[in-house]
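Q: what does this look like with S-adenosylmethionine bound?
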Amino acid sequence: MPHIKVTPFETEKLDRLIAADAVFDFRAVQHDPNREKSPIELLGVDFEGERFVLEIHKRPGAYLIKPDKPTRPLDVNRIKRVLRYLAEAAALKVEQDNITLSPTKPPLAETYAKRIEDFESPDFGGRPIAIEVGFGSGRHLLYQAKRDPEILHIGIEIHTPSAQQVLKQIELQGLTNVWIVNYDARLLLEMLPSNVATAVYVHFPVPWDKKPHRRVISEPFVAEATRVLTPQGVLELRTDSDHYYAYALEVFSRGERVRFEVSKNHEAAIRSKYEDRWQRQEKDIYTLRLVAERESAEVSREYDFRFDRRLKPLDALLTLPQDAIIQPDHFVHFERRYRMVTEEGVVLKCSFGSFDRPEHKLITVRNNQAVYYPQEPVRSKTNDRAHHTIGVSLYV
Ligand SMILES: C[S@@+](CC[C@H](N)C(=O)[O-])C[C@H]1O[C@@H](n2cnc3c(N)ncnc32)[C@H](O)[C@@H]1O
């Protein structure tokens, strides 16, 4: 990650910059009795139209300045440019850095890389869509995209290098009907409108025998997939795991407004690397196809992530309990507290939401207003519930 290591300096000198320069928003110092000697400091920036936060860590004989992970921009060069800008504007003595700009030409395929936020009000250009969960090397996804050019194929993969590899392939093969999302698939379905997908493919998901809560297939997933599918749309699971097959069969059989069919060692039109391997080992491969029988009602995603009640005094926010608040379906954890020094205010570093795919955000409190920084959480049911729990801690 881009960073600069600088000779220790009076961080107060940054406050003059913040007052004079629109790039810098606030400075805040960690409030933690255990870290009084070396509190982490935050520097809020608004650079090239994007808001994020830099952290200043005090190390023996040096200060390390780097972006805060949850708010950091995808564009690495932007981080490098802001670090260079800061070093120059504050006349910092840089001892070590890794901020040489990389060749800037963004790959053409980046047009097809979508963020999870892009699905808050998605525009599929009037095309039917098909979704592939955990596409790995992307063989099936790319094959389908070539075979059905009129369909928009949305691949969602949690593993970043796989997502980047397939983006390169999209560019090389000149495909224009594929979107790639580098995120947890379980959240994507929740955000989609009802009755939009002709298919949802889940091929060879990780069986997670020891951590079943991490499985992609679950009752809520099947319910969301059924809602997102058009009538007669298909959720197709392929697996080589006897356990996963038995588990999925049970989950599918609890689905509503669906029918399903099962087959063994069905020859697929295109085989993934995994399938090739299982076939060489002569393992059985199971295919479960669940068909949505009816249209589903539209769901409301009118979540409101504002804080609209009277807030506790700043000192009370700085001493919010350290322990995570655990509810049956979500949690909230105020991980760090910071006192703003450039104005009256507090910054809370907070993780919250569902246990297996939590959100990490900052919340700034100033002028009697609390807001998520740099932007609101993803509009999911779980985040909505977590937002209410956060409110209980922040309101008087
Ligand atoms: C065993 S591989 C199978 C890849 C591919 N479907 C195939 O048949 O070759 C499982 C893939 O699912 C991805 N994955 C696991 N959990 C996921 C999730 N929650 N959301 C999106 N992708 C996920 C993994 O990163 C991995 O690439």
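The mean pLDDT is 92. DSSP finds ten helices and 19 strands in the chain.
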